[in-house]
Specification:
CATH topology: Rossmann fold
Number of domains: 1
Oligomer: single chain
Helix content: 25-40%
CATH architecture: 3-Layer(aba) Sandwich
Shape: globular
Structural class: alpha/beta
Mean pLDDT: 90
Number of strands: 12
Strand content: 15-25%
């Protein structure tokens, strides 16, 4: 009798564990772990649309000191529109704190270390492709330092069809943008800033003037920076999504 009660207890416990366990993957949301080319263990949050096969893909790049969660609401909106997203915790941030046996923290990263985060964006792209994204229908969006990194990654990867830069800077931690945007080819850019964020507002104007490709400039009122814009101006999500969909369309 005691053995039967024990078996019943185990079965009940297993049932409750299954019932209470998160079903992120079934909802198209999956946190994945992968290695960058230089050995950093990266956390990547994938959000898949209802039909992931050959879906357009978007790499989401957070700013200095943040993590992938800054994109949660934005990524959910894109998911509803049929776009797959990969939001990566850059090295030294969030869940991406180890390179082999070496602990990383963003506050100690040098300019060279930050330049190497381009490996992290490539890993996020690979996650998109493994999940079924269309390799010829990819874009990248970044905020703050992540905006400058997104621009640099677009220069390295010819598969990137568009770049969205939220609150970029001419120089963030040694990662510059003005000379870089002058090198873009066949890659439209959306430049976004708030009017009272003086540094970013000045930067987007300078980048638009220097861009040799189609560059659209859009500003909103207030002083929000990066993805903070979405809380103050939620209509910005629709604007950016619509702009992207003109370039990376569902098939």
């Amino acid at each position: 009798m005691k053995k039967l009660r024990t078996i019943a207890f185990i079965i009940t416990a297993l049932f409750l564990m299954c019932a209470c366990a998160p079903r992120a993957h079934e909802k198209g949301n999956n946190e994945d772990r992968c290695l960058s080319e230089d050995g950093v263990s990266l956390l990547v949050s994938l959000l898949l649309p209802a039909v992931p096969d050959k879906a357009p893909g978007l790499i989401l790049v957070h700013g200095f000191g943040a993590d992938h969660h800054v994109w949660d609401g934005f990524a959910a909106a894109l998911q509803q529109g049929g776009i797959m997203t990969a939001a990566v915790d850059l090295r030294g941030h969030g869940g991406s704190r180890m390179q082999g046996k070496t602990a990383l923290h963003y506050s100690a990263l040098s300019t060279d270390d930050l330049s190497n985060t381009l490996h992290d964006l490539k890993a996020a792209k690979n996650c998109l492709l493994e999940a079924g994204a269309d390799p010829d229908n990819l874009a990248v969006i970044g905020e703050g330092l992540g905006a400058n990194l997104a621009l640099r990654y677009a220069l390295e990867d010819p598969h990137i069809q568009a770049v969205v830069m939220l609150s970029p800077g001419l120089d963030y931690k040694g990662i510059t943008s003005l000379d870089e945007i002058k090198k873009l080819k066949d890659c439209p850019v959306l430049l976004v800033a708030c009017e009272d964020d003086a540094y970013s507002a000045m930067t987007v104007s300078a980048l638009k003037a220097a861009a040799p490709v189609f560059a659209e400039l859009r500003t909103w009122t207030g002083s929000a920076q990066g993805s903070e814009l979405f809380a103050i101006h939620p209509e910005a999500i629709h604007y950016i999504t619509t702009w992207l969909r003109q370039i990376i369309q569902s098939r």
